[in-house]
Amino acid sequence: MDIINILPDSVANQIAAGEVVDRPASAVKELLENAMDAGATQIDLVVKDAGRTLIQVVDNGCGMSDSDARLCFERHATSKIHRADDLFAIQTMGFRGEALASIAAIAQVELRTRPHDSELGTQVVIEGSHIVGQQPTACPPGTSLAVKNLFFNVPARRNFLKKDSVELSHIEEVFRRVTLIHYDLGFSLSSNGHTLYDLKAGGMLQRIAGLYGAPYKERFYGVEEDTDIVKIKGFVGKPEYARKSRGEQYLFVNGRFIKHPALNAAVEKAYADMLPERSFPSYFIGLQVDPARIDINIHPTKTEVKFVDESALFAILRSAVKKALGQFTLATELEFNTPDEFNIAPAPKGYVPPQPRISYNPDYNPFRATPTQTRLSLEFQRPVDGGYVAASAAASLDDTIDDMAQPEPAGPVDAKPAPNCLQVQGRYIVTPLTSGLAVIDQQRAHERVLYDRLTSSAELKTAHSQTLMFPVTCRFSAADADLFGELTPDLRDCGFAIDAIGQCTFVVTATPPDIKDSELQACFDQMLSDYKGATMQKFANRSQSIFATLARQMAVKPGRLLGLEEMQQLVADLFACPVADTAPNGKKIITIVKPEDFLK
Ligand code: ADP
Ligand code: MG
Fold first, then answer.
1. Do residues 396 and 555 make contact, with C-beta atoms less than 8 angstroms apart?
2. Residue 157 to residue 22: CA distance in whole angstroms
3. Ligand showing the shortest atom-to-Cα distance for residue 75
């Protein structure tokens, strides 16, 4: 008895659909790609209920004739390749001719399409692979494809969908992967009637800012490299903005988002020692290679690719990124070497510098053990009579010479003098204590001060709040928005005024005083990623983790030159904290160089 039969197309398509469309986001990807392949310059994506009930893509591309409008739903129906050889010169996003057939097998699809040179368009309605209607229709040139009730006839799949916030965040991720590299096209995304993104055609950095917020414009260095094997163009994150998770790492090849662990590693390698442990740089890098030297066909969703010249590519990419970052190090070096403060004014004509005097403290004995050796001494050493005043690094030569020649008279013994402070490498404050020379990490010190301030103002309900002149809108992926909503009470406690407007959008109208409104989105993003991350275990409760992130974001960063008064204030504030020697994340703030170490 014969037992083999050929599956009807509708069943075959449903099976194929399982591979191509596993959730609303993958249908979104196929439809966006089709619109781009059709040469559209404006593409609008509309979803309802995270794509469950509606996914619609409207484009102004080439449109389809009325017979193509029917044919496009057939399996292996494609206008993009004609023979096997074409596979090696793919310039389009799609080519397998199975996306629309798959989608039509598992949804109710309504297509309206019109070529630019036709008066009238065509409407096709198809449900579970069966055409239920086709008729001429009046519509704008281009194509609108609406996918309704995805998986209406595949309950097993439907039941596997996650909650809307999760499905929507997958859709947003697809939207980012497509729009980040096609920055020359306009895109929009609206969900349940709210516009989440409206992205104008422009450059890549503008696109990044459109997706992640304006502050991102400041966070990257451009990468550009042009070789025979590959053209590279993109942006790599400044090391100080590295994140605790690998989230914002995007590599594209020929306009397509790809996952390629070796190339991703090439980028990270370029950062070598520039990043703190377990933090990851953000990057958005587009590669352009000869389509014949790459295989994108190894995976149905085409995110995995194989390159012929992989090792060369690896080396070129790494050195291009290094170069971009190298310019950065050089630039900062220069900045540190020639700050205005260190410009030495020329000496007046005929000026004879006085003989420098070496002074010493006759009472000082480096071998005398002080009881404060291990504990931090809060007492600052008064400038030794006639000694060089470290903080006067900011003074001109004349002033310095003055200091040396005419020592300040020592104040009354019981007066609390302001500490002498000197900033080193734009990141440490050095100040003499009775127990030795304190080297203070300026950022960690500031973190500690801000953290204590936030915690106590939240506990005592005395938070200071500063109303913003212009309210700031912050956007999150759906899943993050849920979480952010949960954290808002703690944020309110420490001085924020925050309201939800729409599903994923919040508006901030007031903040604690030390926070920059341009940094808010970044700050909240970091807060969410820290909160989700393992670092959480360090903290006794939720608000502690939140305040630690906030403090870190608000704190002065390495590289900020501090004025003398700023340093004095910071050092005094730090020593007023109950735990002055460790930052909220457990890192050490102060190292004391003991007098006996000087001798060595
Ligand atoms: P593929 O993209 O792999 O060719 P699809 O099933 O996604 O396969 O699409 C089939 C064909 O339908 C495409 O080759 C194209 O000719 C046509 N098509 C699909 N979407 C559009 C669109 N938005 N505008 C114009 N033509 C389209
Ligand atoms: Mg396609």
1. no
2. 8
3. 1
SS3 48: strand
- Give pLDDT, residue 299: 64
- DSSP H helix total and E strand total for the chain: 16, 22
Angle, helices 564-575 vs 442-459, to 10°: value is: 50
User: Which residue has tokens 């619609």?
Assistant: 56
Buried b (16+ CB within 10 A) or exposed e, 443-452: bbbbbbbbbb
Could you tell me the pLDDT band of residue 257, with boundaries at 50, 70 and 90?
very high
Find the 159 Cα to ligand 2 centroid distance in Å: 26
Ligand nearest to the CA of 79: 1
Instruction: Name the CA radius of gyration of the chain, rounded.
Output: 31
Count of other CB atoms within 10 angstroms of residue 430: 17
In tens, the pLDDT along 518-563 reads 888 988 998 888 777 644 445 556 777 788 888 888 888 888 889 8
Cβ–Cβ < 8 Å for 25, 173: yes
Helices (H), 433-519: 442-459, 478-493
- List all residues 6 or more positions away from 440 whose beta carbon is below 8 Å from its beta carbon: 428, 429, 430, 431, 571, 574, 589, 590
* Maximum mean pLDDT: which of 106-110, 214-218, 477-481, 575-579: 106-110
Contacts of 188 (CB under 8 A, 6+ apart): 43, 44, 45, 195, 197, 198, 199
Protein residues with CB under 6 Å of any ligand 1 atom: 30, 34-35, 37-38, 59, 61-64, 72, 77-80, 94-101, 143
Confidence label for 77 from pLDDT (cuts 50, 70 and 90): confident
Tell which residue, 235, 241, 209, has the closest CA to residue 475: 209
Task: Name the one residue in this structure whose structure tokens are 């442990």.
Answer: 277
Could you please report the per-residue DSSP string of 287-354?
EE--GGGEE-TTSTT--B-EETTHHHHHHHHHHHHHHHHHHHHHHHHHHHHS-GGGPPPPPPTT--PP
Backbone φ and ψ for 308, nearest 5 degrees, come out as -70, -45
Q: What are 413's two structure tokens? A: 């013994």
Q: Are 57 and 31 in contact (CB under 8 A)?
A: yes
The answer to whether residues 222 and 324 touch, using CB atoms and an 8 Å cutoff, is: yes
Mutate which of 21, 72, 113 for ligand 1 pocket (most atoms within 8 A of beta carbon): 72
Quote the longest CA-to-CA distance of the chain: 117
| Orientation of helix 520-532 relative to helix 542-554, angle to 10° | 140
For residue 135, the CA-to-ligand 2 centroid distance in Å is: 23
Bridge partner residues of 423 (DSSP)? 429
Q: Above 70 in pLDDT, residue 351?
A: no
The protein residue whose alpha carbon is closest to atom 21 in ligand 1 is 34
Q: Which residues surround ligand 2, an ion (CB under 5 A)?
A: 34, 94, 99
Q: Which of 539, 458, 532 is nearest to 491 (CA)?
A: 458
pTM: 0.60
Tell how far the Cα of 78 is from the centroid of ligand 1, in angstroms: 6
Query: What angle, rounded to 10 degrees, do the helices at 520-532 and 478-493 form?
Result: 100
Range 56-81 average pLDDT: 93
What structural domains and CATH numbers belong to the chain? 9-205 (3.30.565.10), 219-328 (3.30.230.10), 372-600 (3.30.1370.100)
User: How many residues does this entry show for the chain?
Assistant: 600
Ligand 1 atom with minimal separation from the 92 CA? 2
Q: How far apart are the CA of 533 and the centre of ligand 2, in A?
A: 37
